[in-house]
Write a structure and sequence with these properties.
The protein is built from three helices and no strands. By secondary structure, it is mostly helical.
């Protein structure tokens, strides 16, 4: 007696709602994890006031994937799995780099030291003259190149 085998079904793509859930989780999960270490990390999660724009972003990404890379929308997609596994690490590193730049900027904004008056007998440097640039409306002439019609010679 022959065994009947069902024909292989083509996998369906995930719905836009399911994609939205994954999109939210992508931002919320690292934020929940990192919030234990850094309170500002909670801002990585989609905030209530960002919900509309986040949903629109998710829907647009879904539409682009449906057009240009439909395999990414198949349940169990290796590509999406790799991206989702890498995302928390990438987010954490981006946050770390951002914090390094913030600290560097804070360190570089130190008040200048007060100018020391010159010691007796030393020549004083002349004060630099301020160069006054004319306001753009004060320019006269033409913006045309010399070989263009209307150029001022």
């Amino acid at each position: 007696m022959p065994v009947e085998v069902e024909p292989e079904k083509k996998p369906e793509k995930i719905s836009q709602e399911a994609f939205w859930f994954v999109f939210q989780t992508t931002f919320d999960w690292p934020a929940m994890l990192l919030a234990q270490i850094e309170p500002m990390a909670a801002k990585v999660a989609i905030q209530p006031e960002e919900m509309a724009i986040a949903r629109k972003s998710s829907d647009n990404i879904y539409a682009l994937l449906a057009i240009y890379y439909p395999k990414a929308l198949v349940p169990g997609s290796d590509t999406i799995a790799h991206v989702l596994h890498a995302a928390p690490f990438i987010v954490a590193k981006v946050m770390l780099v951002r914090e390094i730049f913030r600290q560097r900027k804070a360190r570089d904004i130190t008040p200048p030291e007060p100018a020391q008056p010159p010691a007796q007998g030393e020549a004083q440097q002349p004060e630099p003259q301020e160069i006054k640039e004319p306001h753009p409306t004060e320019f006269s002439g033409s913006w045309n190149l010399p070989d263009q019609p209307g150029a001022v010679q």
